[in-house]
Fold this sequence. Notes:
With about 170 residues, the protein is mainly alpha-helical. It is about 80% helix and about 0% strand. The chain has helices at about 20-40, 45-60, 70-170, and strands at about 5, 10. The longest helix has about 100 residues, at about 70-170.
Amino acid sequence: MVPLPVVRHLPVRAPFHIFAPMGILGGLGFAAIFYAAAEYEHMTGWKWALASIAVSATVKGLFPLSFILVLPAQFGLFIILAWMNIRNKAERDVERTKAVEEDRRKRQERTRLSREQAPSTDADAREAARAAREEAALRERQERVRRAREAREREEREAREQAARNKQGQ
């Protein structure tokens, strides 16, 4: 066995430690979790993965032997991710509201323009319908007058014939 150099009664870190891959795998694991969470929330996943790796590396650099301190740091990063997600959702809602309002205004403007252009054709159609109704009413009146005249002429003829028969019969 080779003795380890001692600095103030603490062993100096050996060049390779058995738990060293665990620190790297843990950092990459957190990076993968942050990547998936960010992508799920429609944010850029690789930025959050890099931030997670940076947090893990910083904590490991400051406190080399404590993996447990990485957890609060990652939790803090997760809180920042959640806050950014809430802020992005609020911004998207504001943008969506603006887009809906703009779309509504555009549709109202198109409707107004079409209504301004439509009265000329509507007025023409209404005028043609009114003229057709007037013409039909005129034909109906003429037909009623013709029937009434024919009925009156028939009655007068019958009355004359009756009068002529009465004269002959007396």
